[in-house]
Amino acid sequence: LQLAQTVLGGRAFPAYRDEPTGDLDVLPILDSLDLSNRSVLRDFILECARLYPPVTTSHHVATEPFTVNMKGKGDITFPAGTIKMITLGQAMLDKTVWGEDAYKFDVNRSQSKNMAFNGIGERAFSRICPGREIVLELLTDVLQGIGARRRP
């Protein structure tokens, strides 16, 4: 429901500190898109989900020990069985991954690293939301219908 509200302009994007995301209006962007191009509409949906993820965290249970360098604490080794939590909201706005314009809405941005459906790219740890394709197809249909009604 949150993603549907977001792509239809009914839910404001989070106002991230020092970033203009809270003022983002996606409807003019939708109005500029080719409604017959399902791929472009899908990228629009994914970009909305990148800036306002419908799922806030993802997890993975480590199958082997791993080491992480913690700022100020040095290397810390964790045992197999440790639950790794990824905060998707932060990961989807990481400038080292998405570029300096990470907070900017860009429908042409590559979505290959988008984790909105609980995984990195097309497959991560064999965990992708089972409803992903249903949601993307349904929202694409909805955008085509509503987008057509909004145009003269």
Secondary structure elements and their pairing?
Blueprint: H1 2-7, H2 27-32, H3 38-51, E1 57-61, E2 66-70, E3 74-78, E4 83-87, H4 88-91, H5 95-98, H6 132-150
Antiparallel strand pairs: 1-4, 2-3
Helix pairs in contact: 3-6
- Give the helices and strands as they follow along the chain: HHHEEEEHHH
Beta strand %: 5-15%
Q: Spans with pLDDT under 50 lasting ≥5 residues? A: none
Radius of gyration: 17 Å
* Largest sheet, spatial ordering of strands: 1-4
Mind summarizing the main beta sheet?
2 strands, antiparallel
Number of strands: 4
- Structural class estimated from helices and strands: alpha+beta
**Overall 3D form:** elongated
Measured between the Cα atoms of the first and last residue, the distance is 28 Å
What do the pLDDT scores average to?
89
- What is the number of helical segments per DSSP (H or I, 4+ residues)? 6
Helix content: 25-40%
